[in-house]
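Severity: low
Component: inverse-folding endpoint
Summary: output formatting inconsistent between runs
Steps to reproduce: submit the following structure tokens with default settings.
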């Protein structure tokens, strides 16, 4: 089985690219979805976060206050604390999924979609991070495009005033600053998909990479 890491910074469009790969028969698991599940009440990750960050990160209904966690992580310099709790558990769940898939479909392509594949290695929360993958696919776009996409996504269905828009933009820039620049990731990636143009162009690049993965 071929194990592929699909990564890209905030607003790069990696989730859209992941959907394109899935439509071509690639098995895809999202690190974000796994993380959200593990952060639900009753999960070990949830308990560790509350112990580390305090009961103020818990809403009245018992769920985690994710915007407050993001504030603590990205604006108050506690991202490493959060990652050291979440990353190992998320990766363990991904490995379990991949191992089960390999047992059922040894010729499959298993793709793990995660924004922080490189960051997990640099932080030290995931030793030997690159050894988990046979190939790495990086989705790129200019920072101004990433920020615009983030603002459009977060503002969907909302009426946002100028002050709120400024805060959202500051949040996007804080998140991007916490991520390794694409220029530093490219030399360590096997394939790079430029997602700054049209969807049709992106589909063409996905088709090309998919063909190479199938023959790898």
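Observed output (run 2 of 3):
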């Amino acid at each position: 089985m071929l194990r592929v890491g699909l990564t890209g910074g905030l607003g790069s469009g990696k989730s859209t690219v992941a959907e394109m790969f899935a439509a071509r028969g690639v098995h895809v698991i999202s690190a974000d979805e796994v993380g959200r599940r593990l952060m639900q009440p009753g999960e070990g990750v949830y308990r560790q976060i509350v112990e580390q960050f305090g009961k103020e990160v818990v809403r009245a209904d018992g769920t985690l206050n994710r915007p407050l966690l993001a504030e603590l992580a990205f604006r108050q310099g506690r991202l490493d604390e959060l990652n050291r709790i979440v990353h190992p558990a998320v990766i363990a769940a991904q490995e379990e999924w991949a191992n089960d898939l390999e047992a059922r479909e040894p010729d499959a392509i298993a793709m793990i979609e995660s924004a922080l594949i490189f960051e997990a290695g640099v932080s030290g929360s995931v030793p030997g991070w690159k050894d988990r993958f046979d190939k790495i696919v990086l989705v790129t776009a200019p920072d101004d495009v990433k920020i615009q996409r983030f603002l459009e996504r977060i503002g969907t269905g909302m009426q946002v005033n100028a002050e709120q828009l400024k805060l959202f933009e500051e949040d996007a820039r804080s998140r991007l600053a916490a991520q390794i620049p694409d220029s530093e990731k490219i030399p360590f990636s096997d394939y790079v998909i430029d997602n700054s143009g049209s969807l049709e162009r992106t589909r063409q690049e996905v088709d090309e990479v998919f063909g190479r993965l199938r023959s790898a």
